[in-house]
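Input sequence (513 aa), recorded before submission:
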Amino acid sequence: MGSASISLSFSCSLIPSPLHQDGNKSTSVIKHGDYHASVCGVVSCAFASPARRKSTSSSSSSSSSTVGKKKLWKQGEFPGTSEAFMEGRSRKTPIKNIKKKLDRKNNAKAWANTAAEALSDLVLKKQWLQALEVFEMLREQPFYHPKEGTYMKLLVLLGKSGQPLRAQQLFDAMVEEGCEPNTELYTALLASYCRSNLIDEAFSILNQMKTLPRCQPDVFTYSTLLKVCVDASRFELVESLYEEMDERSITPNTVTQNIVLSGYGKAGKFDQMEKVLLGMLESTSSKPDVWTMNTILSLFGNKGQIEIMEKWYEKFRNFGIEPETRTFNIMIGAYGKKRMYDKMSSVMEFMRKLQFPWTTSTYNNVIEAFSDVGDAKNMEYTFDQMRAEGMSADTKTFCCLIRGYANAGLFHKVVSSVQLAGKLEIPENTSFYNAVISACAKAEDLIEMEKVFNRMKDKQCQPDSTTYSIMVEAYKKEGMNDKIYDLEQETQRMVDDGPKGVEAFSKESVVNV
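Predicted structure, token format:
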């Protein structure tokens, strides 16, 4: 009875009930058709003209006189409505069907918007495999047309994730779908090969670009190629690329010169490095900037040449170049590697004084300094402070934590760090797996080491030379020459097969031990 009264009061609040209400009898519920007729009656009365209302009231008062009047239309027919009109009206799509179609379309668009947001989120998290799966789902929708920027983001992500062949497949699919490539998209594809050190394939892309009027290489294309060449110490290619740029009237910018400057420095070619730097000081188009400063400081800092690093810092300050947060992070990392904790702390205090923010890289450099010596206590303290200040940990953070716990012999904390990384959805790249494999090797747990290696390949994360060297050393200690032979065969097969072998190897299962 309570529910009936609530239903009744709710319906009464919408329209007056056309039923006669008796205090001794319960009111019946209005059917759907009756309710619709009641609403239509209310609406039509509200919009009727005063004369119409008057005639209606007068006709109702004199109902006895209208009985004998002649009808002006047939039974079932309405005034002003012809049969042709009614036939045409019956052929129209009912409004409720149109509404269903619109609802389905709106729901599909809402799903697409949600999926597009998920795609952007996966790209930010560098989860390339899941990003491709969501992208394929979106492409199946007839109303979804991916834009050039979407392809660009995916190409860059695949390149950074060491997936050049998948980047090529995506690029080919983009062309097949009618999206015309440009210089930027070709450069992103070329960069994916460069990041995997596939120089020949990168130059093949460059030659393709030269044949396409809309895709001519620019200074960013050549800068990308110069980087992979200097990193591989292919300095003869560097000179040829400079000559080609000059022929095409492409002037190297500061980014280009910084790349070559860094390459010469890493290779120990300091004479060429100084020559490039002097040319930058005399140039009008490639003046040295804070990135030049960071390149030089990072070069000598990584080599442990602290005094030379500090001298160059003063020189750049005299050139009028102001340091930035990354500059101080480089110096903190250099001091940390040399265990100069007092100078490391003084730089951090100097940053606070000048209101330079401590970033994730700042904390990573401090954590790495304690990680290298197995100082788990200070490493944990820094990590806790990092999280307390709201800094997001990244892959390098957990690589340092895992190595630090392994160096301290706290292997149970290695496991907890890996679990925390999974909970925080930290991207698992080659460096991450190498850190875990190294920890397993130090714990002399070769079975677990092989499980991690299997997982690494199941996740299509390409092993590198560091991965194999760690495992070979672990097998050598146990005298497992057969295992070493298997690894050498796999490595040789990858080299022989080239980039196609890399993808095939990532899908290939490893024998269970």
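Checked by second reader. Confidence is low (pLDDT under 50) at residues 1-68, 76-82, 500-513.
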